Amino acid sequence: MASTLRLSSSSCSRQINAVINVPKLPQVIPYFSVPKIPTRKLVEELKIRDGFTGIVPVEKINVISTTPIHDKSPNSDVVAATTKLYAILEAVADRVEMHANIGKQRENWNTLLLNSINMITLTAATMAGAAAIGGAGMPLLALKLSSSLLYSAATGMLLVMNKIQPSQLAEEQRNGTRLFKQLQTQIQTMLALGNPTEEDVKEVMKKVLAVDKAYPLPLLGAMLDKFPAKFEPSVWWPSNQQLQKKNNSSEGKQRAEKKNGWNEEMEVEMREIIEVVKTKDIEDYERLGNLVLKINKILAIAGPLLTGIAAVGSAFVGNGSWAAVVAVAAGALGSAVSAFEHGSQVGMVFEMYRNCAGFFRLLQESIEATFEERDLEKRENGELFEMNVALKLGRSLSQLRELARKSASSRMDGTAIDEFASKLF
């Protein structure tokens, strides 16, 4: 009996143990562990985000302080040049934005001033006509005075508008935007290729300043002359005189030794292209530019002159029939002249011709400067140079070579070539 009780108690304890034997829970401590103290690297990163970008690790202070200044790494010049190019790139991007914004503003000037002047002129002509039809005493005086004042205001606004030529100003800013975008792309390409030098930095700086001078932003004291004595192409690139002097000092014997994509046939081809550009494209744009300049000068004088005559004629309305005719007719002609000058944007056309002539002048100087380099290895690759010239002229390589052959044959025959170099302009 006792043995039976012991067996039963032991079996019960086993059951109880089996019931209350709960499996172990997974450790939760790793998921709720206490955060570690930030390391020095994290602290320095936070400081950099706050603007402290010049942090020097403590363990490197002694090394930096004990290193002589003249013992620089070989890449220090490249790093310095790269840093300067990035700074110039930021300035160029800012200039792109400024030229674009100011160009839109000056384009609005042209539209708003033109509409305002035409409305003022037509209103003054209507008042002068109404005063001539009928009226006496104070009504006639009021109409005459209002018409004369409106004509005078239109004359003053036309003088200012013709002086600054808003359409030409807008075209200048569009060209400045385009050229600075080109320069921005060139700097980005230079940085992508790597290993820029101090000479690259100086050359980019010269280009930036040349574009600033060719297309200035302010009006007072820096505005380009809108009515020069003679048509001159735009110049937005630095002078190549120093480059030519350096190239002239190179040795000519290396021409036969190193090719770099150049041969005598290609040089002859490029020289023929230069002749076509000078005798056809540049000459044609100079002729058109001088013609548009003369037309713009005549219109700029005629508009204010006609509105001024109308202002004087409106003051004598009522004293004779011819005064009213002069006031109304001169006012209508002045409105038509200003609409033609600024509505068709004659100043913009003149600036466009200046820019196109400058484009061909730059192409000519770049080819001539390339030929001045006697060392063929220092030149741009001949095949790449030929492709760039063809693209700038809107031609394929076969069309470019065909143009050179036509130019050579026409020179031998003593006849003028009947084709322009460019197919773009």
How are the SSEs placed, and which strands pair?
Elements: H1 2-20, H2 40-49, H3 61-66, H4 76-133, H5 138-164, H6 166-193, H7 198-214, H8 241-248, H9 264-315, H10 321-343, H11 346-372, H12 382-392, H13 397-413
Biased composition (Polar residues): 242-251
Pfam families: Chloroplast_duf (PF14476)
Keywords: Membrane, Transmembrane, Transmembrane helix
Overview of this structure, please?
The chain is an all-alpha fold. The chain has one domain (76-240, 258-413). The chain is built from 13 helices and no strands. The protein has helices at residues 2-20, 40-49, 61-66, 76-133, 138-164, 166-193, 198-214, 241-248, 264-315, 321-343, 346-372, 382-392, 397-413. The longest helix has 58 residues, at 76-133. The protein is elongated. Mean pLDDT is 80; it is low at 1-72 and 241-258. It holds the Pfam family Chloroplast_duf. Keywords: Membrane, Transmembrane, Transmembrane helix. InterPro entries: Chloroplast_duf (IPR027949).
Descriptive tags:
425 residues, mainly alpha, disordered N terminus
Helix content: over 70%
> What would you call the shape?
elongated
- The rounded Rg comes to 39 Å
Mean pLDDT: 80
Helix and strand run: HHHHHHHHHHHHH
* Low-pLDDT ranges: 1-72, 241-258
* SS content category: mainly alpha
Distance between the termini: 123 Å
User: Could you tell me the strand content as a percent range?
Assistant: under 5%
Organism: Carpinus fangiana
InterPro entries: Chloroplast_duf
Keywords: Membrane, Transmembrane, Transmembrane helix
Protein name: F-box protein
